[in-house]
Amino acid sequence: MPRLSTPLLPLLLVLAVQTGCGGDAVRITEGTYAAKSAHVSSLNHVVLISLRDPADAPECLADCREMLARVDSVETIWVGTHTDTGRDAVDGNYDVGLCVGLADAEALQAYLDHPSHLELVRKWAPRAAGFRIFDVGGATSDR
Length: 143
Known about the structure:
Blueprint: H1 8-18, H2 31-36, E1 43-51, H3 57-68, E2 74-80, E3 96-102, H4 105-113, H5 115-124, E4 128-137
Antiparallel strand pairs: 1-3, 1-4, 2-3
Helix pairs in contact: 3-5
């Protein structure tokens, strides 16, 4: 599958976030993860994770859901894997996609410094082949 050009990727992420980065996660009906997935946020922290062993994706998904739901500043959580829709323009060069919604830059910093986030990074950084990270937001929280 052809890789998407780097300048277009952030634009497509903005479109994805504006159409409801947390929407699909609402299908999960139990626990804190589902409750945090039912809102819209002003700042979205998007992480695409390439794992050294793609078979680790289910464990990584579960850890993202469980560990990041503990972070008070997190308003929304969406996590999943690439879906092959047969579209050449879609970049599927990752194993786990994560979108964390936050109120503002202060909430993002609280998330980044939170022990649960740091625990997740410590566990998965050695098992990852790479990360692509995007912080996407609007000029206003009015949507």
